[in-house]
Amino acid sequence: MRRRSVLTALATAPAAFSALSRAAVAAPETGTAAVRKKGVSAWDFTGVAQCLADSRAGWFYTWSSGPGSVTAPAGVEFVPMIWGPGSVTDAELDQAKRQGTTLLGFNEPDHPGQATMTVEQALDLWPRLHSTGLRLGAPAVATGADVAGGWLDRFLQGAAARGLRVDFVPVHWYGADFDAANATGQLRGYLQATYDRHRKPLWLTEYALIDFSSGTPRYPTQAQQAAFVQQSTAMLQGLSFIERYAWFTLSTSRGDGTGLYNGTTATQVGAAYRTAG
């Protein structure tokens, strides 16, 4: 997560192209292909299950190893995450194993205020995640997923050198250009560059339009955000190397200008996301 003012509370919550990766790109997520690409990040709030169902998301996550008090509607998959070094415990890993077949790795280890880990620390802890037997998503960096020598690049090289499995790469992206066509093109370029660099399937686990350049988050209008939803989801649905994507985020209670629901009522952005995918 990169929303500085929005996610301070969440920051403290417990929160080589392999044959498997080639198969996943050709036929994403063997055995779970029926799950919709479209997902959403969420946390517990009054009406969360109703909103999840109304959004027509196929999956969700809570930045935690379990769904907490969130009850998934029928047909909506919960995906666990091991958020940071403090989450690498027997209890958290056991809970994650009970949730399904896929595990998301550390949250923004390259960013102060989030998981905040060195590459070596993450690599040393990775065998614990590996031991779950679940399909593993790499740590999701805040920025620079496509950069040679960046945090993610060094992690993936280190994992390969140690014989550690990484099955797909989660990516975060926030756009400061509020023109929907421009932003969609910029997002696509980042995803393509990341895939070209690492040659693994991608999950876009956080994305929206938010401008952080002034230090205080600046949001587009609802109409601008909704137009971006429409164009970006159409693009994401068509990219074979994108296995899943998740909007930030389900509720306006922490999502400010990006939330899909105000209480249990869809915002203009939420209405656009409901019809996507």
Please identify the structural class as seen in this structure.
alpha/beta
Describe the global form: globular
Largest sheet strand order: 3-2-1-8-7-6
Query: How many helices does DSSP assign?
Result: 10
* Total number of beta strands: 10
Largest sheet: 6 strands, parallel
What series of H and E elements makes up the topology?
HHEHEEHEHEHEHEHEHEEH
Structural write-up:
Helix 5 (119-130) crosses helix 6 (151-162) and helix 8 (222-238) packs parallel to helix 10. The chain has 277 residues and is an alpha/beta fold. The protein is built from ten helices and ten strands. It starts with 7 loop residues before the first helix and ends with a helix. The strands form three sheets. Strands 3-2-1-8-7-6 form a six-stranded parallel β-sheet, with helices on one face. A two-stranded parallel ribbon has the order 4-5. It is globular and about 50 Å long. Mean pLDDT is 90; it is low at 1-28. Keywords: Signal. It holds the Pfam family Glyco_hydro_cc.
Notable features of this structure?
alpha/beta; two-stranded parallel ribbon; 277 residues; 36% helix; 6-stranded parallel sheet
Q: Secondary-structure map with pairings?
A:
Elements: H1 8-11, H2 19-26, E1 38-41, H3 48-55, E2 59-61, E3 77-78, H4 90-97, E4 102-104, H5 119-130, E5 135-137, H6 151-162, E6 169-175, H7 180-198, E7 202-209, H8 222-238, E8 242-247, H9 252-255, E9 261-262, E10 265-266, H10 268-274
Parallel strand pairs: 1-2, 1-8, 2-3, 4-5, 6-7, 7-8
Antiparallel strand pairs: 9-10
